[in-house]
Amino acid sequence: DATLKETLTVQIPQKQEELKQLKADHGSKVLGEVTVDQCIGGGRGVRCMLWETSLLDAAEGIRFRGYTIPECQELLPTFKGPAGDGEPTPEAILWLLLTGEIPTKEQCDGLTAELFERSALPAHATQLLDSLPKTMHPMTQFSLGLQACQTESNFAKAYSDGVHKTKYWESTYEDVLDVIAKLAPIAARVYRNTYFNGEQLKGDTSLDYSANFCRMLGMDSPGFDELMRLYLVIHSDHEGGNASAHATHLVGSTLSDPYNAYVGGLNALAGPLHGLANQEVLGWIQDLKAKFDAEGREVNEKTITEFAWETLNAGKVIPGFGHAVLRKTDPRYTCQREFAFKHLPDDELFKVVDTIYKVMPGVLTEHGKTANPYPNVDSHSGVLLWHYGFTQYEYYTVLFGVSRAIGALSQVFWDRALGLPLERPKSLTTGFIKDFCEKQ
Ligand code: FAM
């Protein structure tokens, strides 16, 4: 079987030709228009970015290289561990996102070994991580850890050595795999420093990327390994316009290397309207339980509805609900719900989440603002982690950050392989828009 690099080497000239042909045949066709509302409203729905690794449909949800989540679960290689033949591995989704092809089990195993070889952190990065205050948010620590590793960038070195632009992809490839490999030990170190007095644990490289990561975190159960595989796969990519992917793409477009580019992505992910929502959801549920436990009242449809209105009336959002593009229940939510039915059907918090799912669309519809009253990915992930005793929810977004690199950096690889330009959309002032519209 071909290795990942061999597969990509064959694909690059074909893809370059395809893009050249697309521009020649259709370069001046119109893909859409931009209204004043869209310009003021954060560019929702404006079609202005090339993104190969995944595509989002408002009703159906995400497809990774054309495959839905259930199709990926059926087709992608899994890790055959003690829990049986369960969820696909992140190595498999990385291969799929980079190449568009379903890898064999042997190809995935080769990629696992390659990632382990690339995972060492420079001493100055571990020293920096160990010196950070435990009170610093884990996402800030995570981002700083990756930033410190930028000294290892092959792309930055190749560029300063004067590499020809047709060869950018080679050092980008090295950086993309290196960053993904290093994120797991950086994330584990942040976790152990913040919650376990800096006591570090070794991984187990006889396992896959996920299980090795779990061992470094201090988690040692086949059930949690399976959850981590599901988690790292489904959070990997959500087309290009979401803030973390877009930030990575934007920073990378300046020929900033993949380390710097993904630090940009992580910092976008750290916002509560984006990746931090998974932490917020757990916080919201804990606040809700604390309130009703203290009052000696049951958590049920009625009390959850009351609590939701309190949140909305306080001018806050319900975390884990709504989406900028989706208009139905997120399939990333649905597959986590199925995981819960399979592995933890009687879990108390899962039942709370499921009751929230029953009432919240009605509450948000009555509230009347949200374009999409249904749950997104973040609404479910925390409760699954919590079930296995992984309860430090301020840390949850770091796991999202380990995963999102897989998609965002696969696209960065293609950005460089296809020679995509600096991103630079046009901005306008209010005055300009007013004058322009009044003249029409
Ligand atoms: N609770 C209360 N109000 C909400 C809401 C929610 N969950 N979702 C949207 N709205 C409000 C929104 O704040 C806006 O109000 P204003 O007109 O007062 O500004 C109005 O409804 C229209 O917003 P929209 O068009 O439906 O959504 P946007 O495209 O502007 O924003 C989200 C999308 C995701 C930022 C928004 O739905 C939200 O804040 N959700 C809660 C936070 C969350 O779960 N984020 C995670 C999203 C996720 F999938 C991810 O990135 N990981």
Automatic annotation (TrEMBL):
The keyword Ion transport does not apply. Keywords: Transferase. Gene3D superfamilies: Citrate Synthase, domain 1 (1.10.580.10), Cytochrome P450-Terp, domain 2 (1.10.230.10). One of its GO terms (molecular function) is acyltransferase activity, acyl groups converted into alkyl on transfer. The keyword Nucleotide-binding does not apply. The active site is at residues 274, 323, 378. It comes from the Eukaryota. InterPro entries: Citrate_synth-like_lrg_a-sub (IPR016142), Citrate_synth-like_sm_a-sub (IPR016143), Citrate_synthase (IPR002020), Citrate_synthase_AS (IPR019810), Citrate_synthase_euk (IPR010109), Citrate_synthase_sf (IPR036969). One of its GO terms (cellular component) is mitochondrial matrix. GO terms for biological process: carbohydrate metabolic process; citrate metabolic process; tricarboxylic acid cycle. NCBIfam families: cit_synth_euk, PRK09569.1. Belongs to the citrate synthase family. This is Citrate synthase. It comes from Pelagomonas calceolata.
